[in-house]
Amino acid sequence: MTDFHAAFSSALALILNLDPDLIEIILLSLKVTLTGVGLATLIGLPLGAFIALFKFPGRFGVVITLNAFMGLPPVVVGLVVYLLLSRSGPFGIFGLLFTPTAMIIAQCILVTPILAALTRQAVADLWAEYAEQLTSLGASPARAVPTLLWDARLTILTAILAGFGRASAEVGAVMIVGGNIDHVSRVMTTAIALETSKGNLALALGLGIILMILSLVVNGSAYFLGDTVKRTQG
Q1: Cβ 7 vs Cβ 202: under 8 Å
Q2: How many domains does the chain have?
Q3: Quick check: 106 and 37 in contact, CB under 8 A?
Q4: pLDDT band, very low/low/confident/very high, at 234 (cuts 50, 70, 90)
Q5: pLDDT tens across 159-216, in order?
Q6: How far is the C-alpha of 89 from the C-alpha of 40, rounded, in Å?
Q7: Dist CA 110 CA 225 (whole Å)
């Protein structure tokens, strides 16, 4: 218990004193996660809307695959990205392995199916409800996309927050493709794992506290938005 109190006190001191190593890791974590989720949003929203509104051969299989990919194992994603970016891989020439860019790519792949699948469901539900009205106003499915996405904005924002929560807590994929290199690719989750194994509990606990606060904020926001959606629809 004494060790825990000492580690906790040291962790709070690091946070309150804005320890440079702590701040560097936190800022890199936010940069990687926000960029990865941002790219996933740009890909996932139009992809989900397209699948919801347009019929094409194999559409049912695409929907099933998309839903299945919501639970992609992070280590598998990390392995695939590693093979693609390694020197012997098709994109090895760019030298992206063990860089923040590789970590962003991995997080984007993890989050995109979540956003695409939830967007598809939200847009499909709205189209089923308003298709006749929108069609009578001369709106084709393609022209209706902005309107439907706007109407589903709270649901989509909740999905984005859920994607951010998954990405920020991810360890396996970013460890594989980032390498957990100090001052280069060390983020909160990988740093916690490393510092715990080294016995540096103060830094690990300090990062853990920040990560928990971030998780509470994100999940609280997602819950609030989800509740708002239910009350709006009700």
Answers
A1: yes
A2: 1
A3: no
A4: low
A5: 898 888 889 888 889 999 998 888 889 899 998 888 888 888 888 888 888 888 888 8
A6: 23
A7: 22
For residue 175, give the H/E element and its range.
helix 172-178
The span from the CA of 5 to the CA of 147, in Å, is 54
Write out pLDDT tens, residues 125-139: 888 887 778 777 777
Q: Which amino acid is it at 148?
A: L
Q: Domain residues for 116? A: 2-233
Q: Among 181, 183, 177, 115, which Cα is nearest to 152's?
A: 115
C-alpha closest to that of 154 among 225, 48, 222, 224:
225
Alpha carbon distance 184, 83 (integer Å): 20
CATH number at residue 76: 1.10.3720.10
Helix (H) / strand (E) containing 216: helix 201-233
What average pLDDT does this structure show over 29-48?
94
State pTM to two decimals.
Answer: 0.88
Sequence-distant contacts of 181-189: CB under 8 A, at least 24 apart = 181/98, 183/24, 184/98, 184/99, 184/100, 185/28, 185/98, 185/99, 185/100, 185/102, 185/103, 186/25, 186/28, 187/25, 187/28, 187/29, 187/32, 187/103, 188/25, 188/26, 188/29, 189/29
